[in-house]
Amino acid sequence: MGAIPGNIETDQQPPMTVPLRHFVVGLAFLVAGIGVGIGLHLNAVPGLGRLAHVHLLLAGWICITIMGAMTQFVPVWSGATLHSRRLANLQLGLVVAGLSGFIVAFLLVKTAWLIPFAALMLVGFWVFVYNIIRTLATVEEYDVTERHFIGALGFFLLLTALGVLLAIDFTVPTFSRVGVSRSGVVGAHATLAVFGAVLTTVYGALYQLGTMFTQTELHGIDHRLRSIEEIAHPIGVVVLAVGRLVAHAPTARVGGLLILLAASVFCLVLARKLYEMQVERTPMHTRYMVAAGALALWIAVTVPAWISDPLTREHLLGAANAGHLLLLGAIGFVVVGTLYHIIPFVIWVNRYSDLLGLEDVPMIDDLYDDRIAAIDGLLLGTGSALIVSADLLELPGTPALLGGLLVGVGVVVFVSNMILVLVRHSPHSIDRIVLGSFSPRRARDLDEAADD
Fold it and tell me: How far apart are CA 211 and CA 7, in angstroms?
C-alpha cells in the first residue's frame, strides 16, 4: 500500500518514538513470555511460573501493545490531538517498572512485593486511560472503533483494580471478609482482562483496519451483525464477570453465551471483509485469516463447555485447554498481523510521506522483508497448530514443547524483521526508542529535542 488512506489525520499523531517504544517493549515481553513458557514445559521455572508467564504475555505484550496502538491511532483516526505526550511516556515507564517487579515477585514467591508493583501497574494503566479519554473528549461523535475503545478503557480500570486487590489478598486475606472467594475474583479479573480490555480493543481496531486495509466497507448484513456485537459483547463481559465473581452459574452462563454470540457475528464480519478484499494479500491479511479461523474454532469448542459449567477454572478462557487457541491463535495472530502494518506505517508516515510527488518512495509493505515474513508465518503457524492440537487432543508433552520452540523461534524472526525496518528506514530513531523506553523523563527530553 503506497498512500495514506484519506480518512485519517496523520498530522495529529504523537512523535513516532512514542508508540514505537511501546511496541518494542511489548515485543521484549513477548520474547520473555515465550521463554518462560518453554521453561515451564522443561520444569525449569521457579516459583509461580505460570502466573509470570500469563502476565508477561497479557499485561506485558498485548496490553502494552494496545497502549501504544491507542496512543498512536486514536489521534490519527479521530482527528484529535493527543492530550499529553508526557503522560504517554509516563504510562509506559510505570507499567514496565510495575510489571517487571511483579514478575520477579512471582518467580521468587515474594508475595509482599506484589502489592507495590501491582499499584505501580495500576497507576500506569490509569494514566493511559486518562490520557486517551481526555483525547477522545474533544471528539463530537464517536464511531464504532471509538465506542469499542471507550468500553475497553473502562474494562482496564476495573481489571487493574481487581488485580491490586488480588495482590493484597496474597498477603492479607481480604475476600472472605466480604463474602466472595478468591477464585471468583480471579475469574472476574481474567474475564475483564481477556474478553473486556483485550477482545473489545481487537474488535474495535479490526472494524477500522479490516475495512481500511482490505479496501472494503461494511454493507448489507454487516451493519446488523455489528449492532448485535456492540450490544452483546460488553453486556456479556459484565454479566460473565459478575456471575463468576459471585459464583452464580446461570448468570455466568448467560454472559458467556452473549460473548460467544458476539464473537460469532464479528467473526462473520471479518471473514466477509477478507473474502471481499480488493488488494493484494499481505502478511497482515494472512495472519487475520488465521485469527478468524482460530476464533471460529474457539467458539465451537467453547459453547458446550460454557453451557455445562462456566465457573470452573478449566473453563476460564473457554473450553478446557482452549486458552492457547484464543490467546495465541486468535488474539496473538491479530496483534502480530497488525504490527506487520502499523510499525512500517508509522515509520513510512514520518520518513517518506513528505517526499510523495518529489521522488520515488517505497510502499508501506516494501519496508519489511517478505521472505522473513514468510518464514516467521510458517514457524508461528506450525508451532501454534502443534500447541493447540496438544491442548485439545491432550497429547503428551513433546508436541507442545516442539510447538513452543517453533513459536519462540518464529517470534525471534518476527521481531528481527521489525528491527530491520527500523535499522533500514529510521536508524536515527533507534537510540531515542531504546534510551527513552524505561525513563519517562528521558523519553520526553528526546522527543522534544527531535521536535526542535
Answer: 12
For residues 105 and 46, give the distance between their C-alpha atoms in angstroms, rounded to a whole number.
11
Long-range contacts of 245-253 (CB under 8 A, 24+ apart): 245/180, 245/184, 245/185, 245/187, 245/188, 246/180, 246/184, 247/180, 247/181, 247/184, 247/311, 249/309, 249/310, 249/311, 252/306, 252/310, 252/311, 253/306, 253/307, 253/310
Does residue 1 have a pLDDT over 50? no
Q: pLDDT tens across 232-280, in order? A: 999 999 999 999 999 999 999 999 999 999 999 999 999 999 999 988 8
**Rg, the chain, Cα only:** 21
Q: Per the structure block, which three cell numbers stand in for 344? A: 512500517
Spatial contact of 22 and 68, defined as CB atoms under 8 Å apart:
yes
- Exposure string (b/e) for 427-437, b if CB count within 10 Å is 16 or more? eebeebbeebb
Question: How far is residue 78's CA from residue 91's CA, in Å, rounded to a whole number?
Answer: 21
Neighbours of 286 (CB within 10 A): 18
pLDDT tens-digit map of 332-357: 999 998 888 888 877 877 777 777 76
Tracing cell 490509569 back to the chain, one arrives at: 126
CB atoms near residue 44 (< 10 Å): 10
Averaged pLDDT of the chain: 87
Query: Could you tell me how many residues make up the chain?
Result: 452
The total of other beta-carbon atoms located within 10 Å of residue 326's CB is: 26
Q: Report the chain's terminal Cα–Cα distance, integer Å.
A: 31
Question: What is the rounded CA–CA span in Å between residue 273 and residue 307?
Answer: 30
The one-letter amino acid code at 261 reads: L
The pLDDT value given to residue 3: 39
pTM of the model: 0.88
Residue 309, class by beta-carbon neighbours within 10 Å (0-12 exposed, 13-18 middle, 19+ buried)?
middle
- Alpha-carbon distances of 209 from 70, 82, 202, rounded to whole Å: 13, 20, 10
Sign of CA dihedral 148, 307, 298, 396: positive
Determine the residue type at 201: T
